[in-house]
Amino acid sequence: MVTRISGLASGMDIDQMVSDMMKAQKIPLDKMKQQKQWTEWQRDSYRDVNTKLNELLTMAKDMNYQKTYVSKKTTSSNEGAVSATASPSSSMGTYSIKVNQIATAAINTSQKALSSPDSTKKIDPNKTFAEQQDVSGGTSSFNAVVKDGSFKLTTYGEGGVAKDVTIPVLTTDTLNGILKKINDSGAGIRAFYDSASDKVVMERTETGNFNKVTTEPPVVDNFFGAEIGFDQSNDFLKNVLQMKLTTDPAGTTLTEKGGTNAEFIYNNALKVESTSNQYTINGIQLNLKNVTAGNETISVQTDTDATFDSIVKFVNKYNEIIESVNKKLDEKRYRDYAPLSDDQKKDMKDKDIELWEEKSKSGLLRGDSSLSSGLNTMRTDFYAPLAGALQGFAQLSDLGITTSSNYLDKGKLIINDESKLRSKIAENPDAIYKLFAENGDGKTKSTMGIADRLVQTITSTIGKVEEKAGKTSWTNQKFSLGRTLDTMNKQIDSFQDRLTQMENRYYSQFTAMEKAIQRANQQSAYITQQFSG
């Protein structure tokens, strides 16, 4: 490291002099940094374009899905009782639905309050059972003393298949803890304690009657047909939770409510029973909500609005993106407005810096051949006719969509006749689908639908841009501008080392001068002293 003496002998400002001398030497370095900054801006601008192209690519892929063109909608004469959702496979028409019964979930509750009438306070579901019973005094917050043990619950699924779960009970448990064990058991039961009524509620998490009692061989009679089955003689269930299956030993009256299947009649002919209130028939998903006095009507028809909106959004997105990219391609390059160095920014106002950089960033992608070629191909993809298409559905102009005649629009699409587009969609949605999504042979554009062509073109254009600018996750060596930036960084580092050596040399020279002046001053002082003596 060079020892620096800052003008003590000469009286000169050595630091300022060296700084002034280095300014000229740093000019090439500033130019290198400016070129690096411009290249980084260009890389980022390419990536911004690719982000927009990817948005268009996503929409083009969506336009290849049949559901975009054969979307159907439903109406109900009584939405409060039965609603419906159509799918592409739904048959268009009008259907009658009479709802005789809706599906309900089974529910059972404590037959009386859990807290003991002798207790001075109500039970606390978050305290342990042991905390709430005074063995020595013989009193308890609960109607019965809780002992260690367990109880079993049984629920049923499709085909009447039973699922048994065993719930352990300890005196160190809390009531809410036991109920959580039930909820987490996988039995499909939701259990909770209602403090207002001082009762426990157990209900199935799904609707339907799965545990059916049969009188014909083979006779099935599990838990009197209850959806939540248990041994009602179990001490904890009977005496602590106050749960029962029936109100009488014969089991003629269940305490459990609900657990019913939905029942409806389709088109005055087909009687349907379902464990769920959602049922799909003829491609139509019905949602049963209430019993009806008579028939309600469900109508299924083509959703021309949905298809129309999809096409309009696609056209608008295409117009938005080609306008943005064309603007980049046509931007003027202001070569006199190089990126500002840090030293230059120090002497400028923020607004001036903003205006300068607006000029500096102009023309980053001017005349780029990959983007220009991509846009030209996209224009052709849109207006070229589809080979083998139904007459009147072979190209966009048949639907009332044309290319703008204004050359300044550079290929923008114009929907000249919305009513024509709507009528064409209603007339033959399948032909519209084919125009956009026909696969063809995958090679010859004339055999491919518009969206299929665009997917191919946009994917190719994005790939070419990535070869230049890469992605944010890529290393510099994977794309051309990245490799250029690596080279620039090496050149900047090398030149910075040269400047450091040069600055050290200047300081060495000034230090030698300072030492020489210091020696001369010492000699002069010595001579003066000799003569004055």
Architecture overview:
This protein has 533 residues and is α+β, with helices and mostly antiparallel strands. The protein has three domains: 15-68 and 306-482; 72-103 and 261-302, no CATH class; 107-240, no CATH class. The chain is 40% helix and 17% strand. The strands form six sheets. The protein has a five-stranded antiparallel sheet, with no helix packed on it. A three-stranded antiparallel sheet has the order 2-15-14, with no helix packed on it. Strands 4-10-9 form a three-stranded antiparallel sheet. Helix 1 (14-62) runs antiparallel to helix 11 (480-532). The longest helix has 53 residues, at 480-532. The two termini are 43 Å apart. The model has no long low-confidence stretch (mean pLDDT 89).
* Element order: H for helix, E for strand: HEEEEEEEEHEEEHEEEEEHHHHEEHHHH
Catalogue the unreliable spans.
none
Radius of gyration: 42 Å
Query: Helices and strands: which structural class?
Result: alpha+beta
Q: Roughly what percent helix?
A: 40-55%
Oligomer: single chain
Q: Kindly state the mean pLDDT as a whole number? A: 89
Number of strands: 18
Approximate shape: flat
Cα separation of the termini: 43 Å
Q: Strand-residue fraction?
A: 15-25%
The profile of the biggest β sheet is: 5 strands, antiparallel
Count of DSSP-assigned helices: 11
Number of domains: 3
Write out the strand line-up for the largest beta sheet, numbering strands in chain order.
Answer: 1-16-3-12-13
Organism: Priestia koreensis
Subcellular location: Secreted; Bacterial flagellum
Domain Flagellar hook-associated protein 2 N-terminal: 10-106
Family: Belongs to the FliD family.
